[in-house]
Amino acid sequence: MTSTGLARVTLFLITLCGDVIDALAAPNPRTLGSDLTILTHNDLYAATLVLGAWQPHDKAQTTCEQLSEDLWEPDNSTDFGFLMYLKYSHTSEKPGLYWIGGRALCSQSAVLSFPEKDDTSEKWQVAVNAGTASILGSRDKLSFRFRGIKYAAEPQRFTYSKYKEPDGNISALTYGSGCINTYCGTTLDCREDCLFLNIWTPTLPAKKSAKKKAVMF
């Protein structure tokens, strides 16, 4: 193998190991022992991270810190009407009080993401388990985001694709390649290997539930 080939293999291994470490280090609903929900007011200004598990104050504070946040400290101008959703949705294990600055409300300091401003740095990263896979994503102000998840191997031309179950540590921080279309080469990176799934969700459950949320494609 040439020195160039060795360099490429080494770079690939370094990148792969980095993704594995990130996926293991990122906060995960299972390891945190709590559902995570981003709750946002309709005006998109007020927002909080809801920890669904019943827990003491010090544990709630620690969990918020693991998410790079603090216990929520609303100011006098905050409209608390959007918190009524907690009663309607039964987001937490059982009704009661929340710890702010049983369950807890953490601050939500992540900002809205835009194509030209998309911060997926370690501070905003979060991981979920799916079967034997650990998938690394991120959050912004409105949702947890998992992008570029490969769901099928590249099919031969004019054949059907076959589902590929996720496995191992997967980085879902960026979009996958787009399929061939008229925008290729200008605003979009296109390839025939383009079967990727992008997921946005306001809630990450800590445990599997028979009651599923609606999914829109």
UniProtKB/TrEMBL annotation:
**Signal peptide bounds:** 1-25
- Give yes or no: UniProt keyword Phosphoprotein: no
Keywords of this entry: Signal
- Keyword Chaperone annotated: no
> Which superkingdom heads the taxonomic lineage of this protein's source?
Eukaryota
Per UniProt, residues of the Carboxylesterase type B domain are 130-217
Q: Which organism is it from?
A: Curvularia clavata
SUPFAM superfamilies xrefs: alpha/beta-Hydrolases, C-type lectin-like
Pfam families for the chain: COesterase (PF00135)
What's the protein called, per UniProt? Carboxylesterase type B domain-containing protein
The cross-references to PROSITE patterns, in alphabetical order and at most eight, read:
CARBOXYLESTERASE_B_2 (PS00941)
- Note the InterPro entries from the entry: AB_hydrolase_fold, CarbesteraseB, Carboxylesterase_B_CS, CTDL_fold
